[in-house]
Amino acid sequence: MDRFHKETLKEVHSAKYLTSWHYIRFFSLYIYILIIFKFTVLDIAQDRFMRIGLCTAFALLFFRQIFMWRDNRQLLRTYHSLNEQLEDKVNEGIQALSKSEQQYKTLFENHPDAVFSLDMSGNFQSANTSCMEILGYTFEELNGQSFLNYVVEDDQYMARDAIRQAKTGLSQTFEVRACDKEKEFSYLQVTLIPTLVGNKTIGMYGIARDTTELKQKQRQVEHMAFHDALTSLPNRRKFENCLAEALKTATKRETMTAVLFIDLDRFKKVNDRLGHDIGDLLLIEVSKRLQQSLRSKDIVARQGGDEFTVLLTDVFSQQGAALTAERLLELLNEPIYVSGNELKITPSIGIALHPSHGTNVTKLMKNADIAMYRAKASGKNKYIFYSQEMSDVEDEKHFLEGELNQALQNNELVLHYQPQVNMETHEIIGFEALLRWKHPKFGMVSPAEFIPIAEETGLIIPIGEWILRTACQQAIEWHDRGYAHLKVGVNLSPLQFNQSNLVELVSSILEETKLPAHLLDLEITEGVAMKKEEQVIKKLNQLKRLNVQISIDDFGTGYSSLSYLTKYPIHTLKIAREFIKEIQNNPQEEAIISSIIMMAKNLQLTVIAEGVETNEQWSFLSRQQCDQIQGFYISKPVDADKVWDVLLSNRIKLASKNMLSL
Length: 662
Ligand code: C2E
Ligand code: MG
Ligand code: MG
Description:
Blueprint (H helix, E strand, L loop, with lengths): L1 H15 L3 H25 L3 H63 L3 E5 L5 E4 L1 H7 L3 H4 L13 H12 L4 E8 L5 E13 L2 E11 L1 H15 L9 H18 L2 E10 L1 H8 L1 H17 L6 E6 L2 E9 L2 H16 L2 E3 L2 E3 L2 E9 L6 H17 L5 E3 L2 H20 L5 E10 L5 E12 L3 E3 L1 H11 L2 H21 L6 E5 L2 H5 L3 H12 L6 E6 H5 L2 H14 L2 E7 L8 H4 L4 E4 L1 H4 L6 H16 L3 E4 L5 H9 L4 E3 L7 E2 L3 H14 L6
Parallel strand pairs: 11-12, 14-16, 16-17, 17-18, 18-19, 19-20, 20-21
Antiparallel strand pairs: 1-2, 1-5, 3-4, 4-5, 6-8, 6-11, 7-8, 9-10, 13-14, 13-21, 13-22, 14-15
The chain binds ligand C2E and magnesium ion (2 copies).
């Protein structure tokens, strides 16, 4: 381009200044014509017409020459002016070119990404500062070296492939790990752009972005999405993914996989009593213990709350899974020290095996969960393998749930009544109302089966209201028939007791039925009494103000502190059947019964023994001066119509004064 420019200028220059040779060449023709004119027109041609003709011809020639000369000068001027314009344009072009060259250089040098060029063999030809910084080498060290030398061996195939493709004229983007001079890795996202001259690739440009930080962030986000923030263990999502993978492999290898569902017993109590911070530390410690007791290929995850799951792969027998569960139990039974507190925490473990207890993730998780609930229900601190019977129970539960919905409307619920007898006078002092469900197909369904379902579904609220009203109406009927001293006991479920309008409900039913409040005995369990102490005391005091009586049902089974007995406005302790049935079998239980009776007397509480079945039990309780008894020894719970028979037979027995042979 430069050369062309110079030559053009030279030509323009030489054209501007006509040389003398040009003048000679120009005028020689005219001189020659003048000579001819002299000879032909002035001397030779005598003919007038000939002369005129020739003169005209010469004149025309002369004028044409003059015009031609003028045109030529004009053309020359235009030519000069165009040349000047061209010269300006060329200058501008040169300036623009050098500017863009400058810009390119700046861009190349200062680009935050690594920019480099490679020859057709993939060797460095140029590299900017970022490229040198990322790889940690000077240009002299990089120059002529293969790009592949700086790529981690495992990723080299990707880079090699991309270079091969770029050589065919196709741009390529790929991600590799680069290894710098200090042998540190960085993630690079590389784009190779072929350098084309005409249609031929002569090399390639590369732009590489360092994505190491981005990768770390990505990994952090991924970790957060798949791990539990408190314990850093995998979370439910991750666990289920791993389980799905494990099941695929197990199916191929024909090995067993076990899912252990672990729930900590009474964790909520620790949380409530010692606070969430201690609860959190406890969970962290538990997660550490779980990890310690497993093989590195096993996975332990936190499902949420105090629930953990363990995945055991390559299990060869049920025995193998049982051994792991035993080890976990042993480890978790060791006391845990958290912030100066010695905590005893036990787990309930449910185990489901693949393929016998389920062939997919959902089924295995569900069945392990069901088995865990069974472990809890059957005494806690143990492991139980899933069995089909558990699902049947669950299915039945779901079935009953649907049926129970209709039970109240369909009048399928009835109350049975069990007498309570004064041990001294042998007189029936009242009846406990016990709920029964007369199912049209299944017959009588036990409350132990459907009351927990009613609790879970909240149906206990309308059902409970119906029980309270029906029992009070029934008691009024007894009173009207001459048994005005009889009280009626009504069981309150925890959910019912915690209802905010309980006191209003009791008060309005008493008003409605006209039952004297002191003849209504509300039974609450120890579990209810133990929770949210202040609120419970407040509620009990409100009930006391109504003049209603309060009994603690199944006393002694709630593992609770006895201190609450002094704080709560209660009237009666009902000693649980569990203790009574041990009379004559277990002196320790007998001692407990004596202590309860003694303590109750000191606190001026009435004691009633539940589930009395035998003469021996009666005698023992009588010796201990228990106030009242309830149980099959007197009568099983009977329906409302049979209450009269019970009352009547009691009268006869009283009359015969032969109670001990009842
Ligand atoms: P609970 O309140 O402790 O009732 C006493 C249970 O012991 C009754 O069982 C009764 O039939 C049974 N029982 C009484 N004497 C004997 C005996 O000598 N031997 C034996 N083996 N059992 C005896 P039931 O009626 O099956 O009730 C079980 C539990 O269901 C009740 O225990 C109570 O917690 C609950 N429940 C029953 N009716 C109601 C109710 O109307 N409302 C609420 N919320 N719960 C109820
Ligand atoms: Mg009861
Ligand atoms: Mg009871």
